[in-house]
Amino acid sequence: MRRRFAILTVLAALAAPVASAQAQARVGVISGISRATFTGGGARGITWRTALILGGVVDVPLGEGFSVRSELQFATKGSRGRVGSADAAMKLSYLQLPVLLQLLTGSDVLLRPRLFGGVSLGMLLSCRRKEVNCDDDPGLVTHDFDSGLLVGGEVEVLGAGLGVRYEAGLGSVTAVQNPGLEIQNGVLSLTLRYLFPWR
User: Fold this and answer.
1) Residue 193 and residue 199: Cα distance in Å, rounded?
2) Is there a contact between 144 and 124 (Cβ–Cβ < 8 Å)?
């Protein structure tokens, strides 16, 4: 029930800017490949793992030089390697909603750079360690929700944008008994997105 409620909340948050959007608003798709890992005091002896992003985008102008961008994504995160003496190689899958404020250049140029930053809220869909569901491991307690700060930039050409972004997790991925040994998600992504005219 909690996961269903969270899904509806995320969908409502994504739809809100669409309902109030002017004719210039655009929707589109985004995909990307990421290098994901864990950060924090408990992240030792780990390596990056390859992860994926796939989802939709709503871009709502706020004026000549700014816009609000909401994304609804399926994203994989996690890491490979070990944390302390325990095998912490984990594959995490999230439904996440980044909400970003964008700084744009003029619309009369072919190459249109943009910078963005904001927050990302995520709901955990699945967690696996050593190909075993994390729920079946009594020694591992994962949190159902995640949040992070996201910054990045893009270069847009004819509605298509090639971008790079980094998401720094704010909350611990797992419950820890010893303060200072938390692990957070850290994800560096290369993305490709395309925006269609709203109408």
Assistant:
1) 18
2) yes
Chain segment 30-80, per-residue pLDDT in tens: 999 999 988 887 767 777 888 999 999 999 988 778 999 999 999 999 887
> What is the end-to-end Cα distance of the chain in Å, rounded?
36
Q: Residue 181 carries which DSSP code?
A: -
Quickly tell me which residue has 């004819």 as its tokens.
Answer: 158
Cα gap 78→187, rounded to integer Å: 9
The secondary element (H helix, E strand) that includes residue 9 is: helix 2-19
Q: What are phi and psi of 179, to 5 degrees?
A: -55, 145
Q: Write out pLDDT tens, residues 66-109.
A: 999 999 999 999 887 654 455 557 888 999 999 999 998 766 66
Q: How many CB atoms lie within 10 A of CB 122?
A: 26
Measured distance CA(148)–CA(189) in Å, rounded: 14
